[in-house]
Amino acid sequence: MSYATKMARGPQVPAQRRTRFGVARRQVALLVGVVVLGVSPAPALAEESVGVSAGLGIGSALCSLVYAPTKILYAVGGGIIGGFAWLFSAGDNAVASAVITPAVRGDYVVTPAHLTGDQSLEFIGREPAPTYAAPPPQPQPY
């Protein structure tokens, strides 16, 4: 085979390598398809079909694979920085709490309710709602 013929045909890839990349390409395309189906908005039906709920479940699991480790790293980093804030503020719990609370509170996994928009995904946590104790009993007159 002449040099010009080889150049016209382009680089030759071994059959084994072509097959391996072909399989990987198909697997990535399948994964993208599942994610797209799982994340797409569900039609407004009285009851969700099995396919929609399965797609939402798979989509939320795949999203959680990325989201959960990110949230955990954020929470651990916030805990470390909150510890240093407490240390450098001479043990002021309010300073440490202002750093640790937003980092540690919030959602750690993505649920199907997050994907459908029924519930908001909270990465940075909020302060807990205040709880009030019952007022003390009033003394009874004799």
Task: Sum this structure up briefly.
With 142 residues, the chain is mostly helical.
Main traits of this protein?
mainly alpha; 0% strand; 142 residues; 5 helices
Major β-sheet, in short? none
Q: Please report which band the strand proportion falls in: under 5%, 5-15%, 15-25%, 25-35%, 35-45% or over 45%.
A: under 5%
What sort of overall outline do the alpha carbons produce when their principal axes are compared? elongated
Which class of secondary structure composition applies to the elements?
Answer: mainly alpha
- Proportion in helices: 55-70%
Describe this structure as you would to a colleague.
By secondary structure, this protein is mostly helical. The protein has a domain at 13-41 and 48-116. 62% of the residues lie in helices and 0% in strands. Helix 2 (15-39) crosses helix 3. The chain is elongated. It starts with a helix and ends in a 26-residue tail after the last helix. The model has no long low-confidence stretch (mean pLDDT 78).
Write the layout of secondary structure elements.
Elements: H1 3-9, H2 15-39, H3 50-88, H4 93-104, H5 112-116
